[in-house]
Amino acid sequence: MSLSFLSPTAADPTAVARSPMERKAKAAGARFEAxxxxxxxxxxxxxxRVAQTVAWTDMSHLRKLELQGESVPGELGAARREGDAWICxxxxxxxxxxxxxxxAPPEAIDVTxxxxxxxxxxxxxxxxxxRFCALDLRPQVAxxxxxxxxxxxxxxxxxxxxxxxxxxxxxxxxxxEYVWTVVEDAARSxxxxxxxxxxxxxx
Length: 203
Hints:
alpha+beta; six-stranded mixed β-sheet; single chain; 4 helices
């Protein structure tokens, strides 16, 4: 029996990875491009309008690495920016690196496909999140650079406060479509909608 299918050289070089929310994105009219081995939604109809209220972007393609050991000390409840990546402290000796193109240290574990991700942003972003998440994201409690593990749409998840009105939500890969639906239901009444992962949302 040949095991050649296990060899990376036998893989289809044109194959791309796909977000668990791709079907929802297609239904919303997304245009896709291949980026770094991923099929990424880069544009939707009517983006300019929804971005003025609240919008969400599928960011599941962001690389996610779990770092372990004493070499990753940081402050619990905080996310620090290093280049174009976030480092979020999970425990005193475990951290999650999100995004960036850094060379992964040998001890890092790639957990990219463990976590789907949505970026929610705009003046009404906090109001939308409050409709399905009980985490306290008031500016005085969770300023930019905060990291909040907790329940997102009744699922285990994490939120990185990237800016005053910009939040990165991470949750289980298997519930990606469900969370998209919850966010969509919460945002539609506020004239919100999906936007593509353009230059401003690619980091």
